[in-house]
Amino acid sequence: MWRQALPPAAERVFWLHWEAGMQNGDWCSEIPLKRVALECCVDASTVTRAYQVLKSLELIRREDPGRDPNNPFQQATAITEVRLPRELVSELSRSPNRPLKVAQAVPGREAARTAHPPNLESVARLQTPNREETKALWGRVSAAERSRYFLASRDRLTTMEFDSSTQLTPEDRGQILAQLAQLAAARPSANPAKTSATLSPQGPRRLSILELARARKQILQNVPAGESAELLRQVIWAAEQGALRRFPLRLAINTALKKIREGCWSRPYRMPPNWQPGGLARSAAAPEECSVA
Fold it and tell me: Are residues 60 and 122 in the same domain?
């Protein structure tokens, strides 16, 4: 924010949408302009100028959903997505996590190091060997040590016995023990069938709020306002549970919109008559019984 030299009002607007998008989990928020002005303690015109500055710097992306379905004479609240600048993403990718290097030996400390050998696990945590060092390490392992390592890894043990005349240094033994500890911590899932079902595209999927707003806007551009709500409901069902479910979400929405523009869209087969999208169902208030009566 400091490098972009943003005005204070634009910075307030950005962090307001950042916090709301982080709470929603998809970095998208739907906040009315008057509420943004109230939260940021600025005028509505200042919020509009702040949106223009943030969009020019590619810090946000706003999608206009068109008219409000509940009130055709009022504009619906736009969807705002917060973004990171390209140069910041490139800078982050050029700065990977670097492993800590082992401190070089000091001549005056060799005697103390011999009298008190370092902990093997602590040495293993300080350095991460590369491929050549790992190949050289296993070249110094004897056949008996290889067999004991295999049994320890199979039984998920964190310790193993080394030969009395082993060629491994304390650092090498620390690396092998660290590998055993890592293998022991990687527990398999208790229910493999459940894991495979989770990874496979069998569960329900949901359109994000930004995709819903984009689909609603394009439907309103091609059909009358009275038919847009029903068409949007059919498109959502087809993309989430119907025949378009086998395609990616963006491709499924584009396919449905193309059929609508060409006039060849029909009600999806086996669509329940009273089905409602998950997002709309959550936004509606649940009916309650009157306990007083």
Answer: no
